[in-house]
Sequence to fold (400 residues):
Amino acid sequence: MVSLNKFTEIVFLNLFLFPIYPDNIKPSFVALFFFTALYAIVKKRDVFFNSTSKVTSLLLINISVFLLLFISLYYSDNITFGLKYVFRTLPLFLFPIAFFFLKENKRIFSLKLFLKAKLYFYLSTLILFIGIFALFYFRGFVTENYFLNYSYRIIHQLGYYSMHPIYASLIVSISIIFSISLFKNKKYQLLIIVGNILLVLNLILLSRKSAIIIMGVFFLIFVFFNKSIKVKIKVFILFITLVLIIGVVKFIPDISNRFNDFLDLFDYTNMSSSNLRLNLIDVSIDAIKEKPFFGYGIGDIKDILSDFEHKNDFFNNKYYNTHNQYLNLMLATGFFGLLLFIAFLFKNLKLAYSGSFEQFSIVLLFVLLMFIENILDRQNGVIYFAVFVNYFSFYNKINN
Fold:
């Protein structure tokens, strides 16, 4: 019979296989992890009270954003929408509590299991996108227009595996970052070299300029500050990287078109992903000005933003969310909520920085993407954010 500790380990590692699971079963595995942690603490009740104030304060900080969203339901008119939103963001509440319950489990927060978790996530991401390519190939989708159609097919033609390209880019980017520590193990080096080539090609296929720019900058910083790389090699790597980036941007149509968006940044007669976001910033700020301190409540953000967008001809009577997590949070909870969220992010960035370049890069990746996407509005975004941010922070707090 499998022991409780072993079962907990299996359920924990299962979280890092999420890329290969369809969206409809991921919430069940989140619940399984939470109730496993809850059962573990019930079995060892004395452990619950054996915690330092530092770990307890981390728990309070990391559940604070969810609690604030939940409280904002009180002054929301559209309770139905608010409840759906709060339910979707439950991982922000469940994961910090689960990791807090498991704080005395040395195995969960061991370096050995952490490395195994990274490998599981890396392999599952590779399997996912190799499987997607194979599916598209056998369906006859791999043509001369593959670059132009890849993002569309990722969104619309994968059933429960369908996802927005920004979230596909997110898990690819996290896997590439994890490869830094995995590459140090000689038996994984060939896998990482081949795997990273495939992942970088997939990142290019997904054509999200934000992810490409962020990962490019992370790579250049990693090379520049890596003391084990000689100066001449650094210069060569930086030169080759810049040449490749310029070549990709110039000669791959979908990416080229997306970077050309910047040319129409202030042309409000021609909608692009870039000037759409500028207009959304304008209308969001206009809405925030009317209730700046505590916002409208999480239930009313869609209705309020929709009303303001309908007054602007640019949106052509279509609804768009803020495409900015910080503005979205301000609409719901005002400046008070934004300040709390910034404190939450700062605390977790600081802990990630104390851990490793990998951890800091992944948390910073989320922070930066939140400027152009409502990461917490989608299941994939909120689950991955809650898993990684909370595990990194509790791992570093407990081991320090």
